[in-house]
Amino acid sequence: MDRENALSTIASFDTELYTFFQEELQRQKYTLSFMPEENYSSPLSTYLEGSILSNTLTTHHDEAKPTGLEEITINRINKLFGSEHAVIRLESIAAASRVVFYSLAKKGDTILSLDNRKSDHCNSKNLEFNFVRFSIDPKTQLLNLDRVEQIAKEHKPKVIIFSPVNYPRVIDYERLAKIAHDIGAYMWFDICQNVGLVATGQIPSPVPYADVVTFSTHDSLRGPQSSVILCKKELADIIDKTVITTGHFSLKKNILASLAVIFKEATTEKFKQYTKQVVLNAKALQKGLEEEGITILCKGTDTNLVLVNLTKLGISCKKAHNALQSAGFIVKPTVLSTCDENLNFEILRLSSLILTTRGLKEVQMEHIGKMMAKVLKNIDDMAIIEEVRQQAVDIAMECPLFSDEWLAFKDVLNPLYSAKDINISHELAAERKMAVMKKLFSFMIPCYVGPPYGASDTNSKYASKNINHSHERSEAGRGGKKLKFPAFDQYRSG
Hints:
Blueprint: H1 3-13, H2 15-30, E1 32-33, H3 43-49, E2 57-59, H4 68-81, E3 85-90, H5 93-104, E4 110-114, E5 130-134, H6 145-155, E6 159-162, H7 173-182, E7 186-190, H8 195-199, E8 212-216, E9 227-231, H9 233-245, E10 250-252, H10 253-265, H11 269-291, E11 305-309, H12 310-313, H13 317-326, E12 329-330, E13 332-336, E14 345-351, H14 353-357, H15 362-377, H16 382-397, H17 422-444, E15 471-472, E16 484-485, H18 489-492
């Protein structure tokens, strides 16, 4: 069953589920997301995850040695990162974290961690540790490794964890690892959101200096929900045994295949250019915000992450979050700790990963930064928020969820056609895509989708029962042709 027919069947068979599908489709396609823990999956990865391989799994029970597709995937990982040992039988980063804790520490051990990261993954009595925190200096807004060394010597932790989810700068990995090893501690780096940048050399790799490295595969690698542990050879046996004893002895072959293909993609020039653009886009976003008077913490960014200082603006996380969502932006508010327990910052964690996947470049990101600043500086002005929302929808409408989905046969010739007939394949691909889109949105016409993401009021003007189910895209960039798309008005014009 092809995709459009499957959607048609679901629409008639399970209207409740299909309504949820519609809402999520609208949210993803017609808002601009800056969520750091998310990304849109590679089309190849998505296909394999939903393929017939989902019907089978690889099970090892008490056998740790990988074979077949698992072995292929692990070999690709080790080659890509220069690692000595890799484990991939883990469905989430939380599961990977618990395996590492069980392998390296025992109940009651001291753990020194950036902002107490990973403490939320300790969910049993056997994972009760004495967590000691290190954080940024509130004055410089940077990590002071001399201070970290002082804390490490004082508390003698069994493990030091550096997981920079709220830290956008590159540090001296070698120095931090030396601090750990000088006191007999293990050094554990978690690089979830930055792993793609590490894989392509956009930022330095901690792998040569670490005892253990963990990362998820669904954010900057654009793969399925899964995770990976890298470790030194001397830790391989204990980590492999822990993986088995904690019940992680199988993976479905569709996930294995999906993992294998993203690590293959990570070696390509296209992916390297993607990660390069991720960093450029983050810097452009920062520039747009700063030009409109918004303060950025940690003196900028080296990665995908931009931290907006809400404390200086006098705006709470909740208020900023709600206003930006109403304006069409999906953001992650949180609190940034410092080494002064009495001084923390309310922030927005903005990631360039998703919008780079959608094909945006520096000029657009800088403009979006200015749009977001406009909302933050006029937080209670609904007219301005509505004006920005319409601009955000216009940008989102021009961007596919994954840019390469709309660039059929850009790099690979269709085997059905010769090189001279490649234009034919382009035309057919475009026709197929348009046919899918027409069928997809035709199913959406009778169904109420609700207000734009973040607008919860049932009496909102977005909740009109008389939605005009057609919208003509602007002629810009469309060769003068106007295309009709249903069910867009609630996002575009309110």
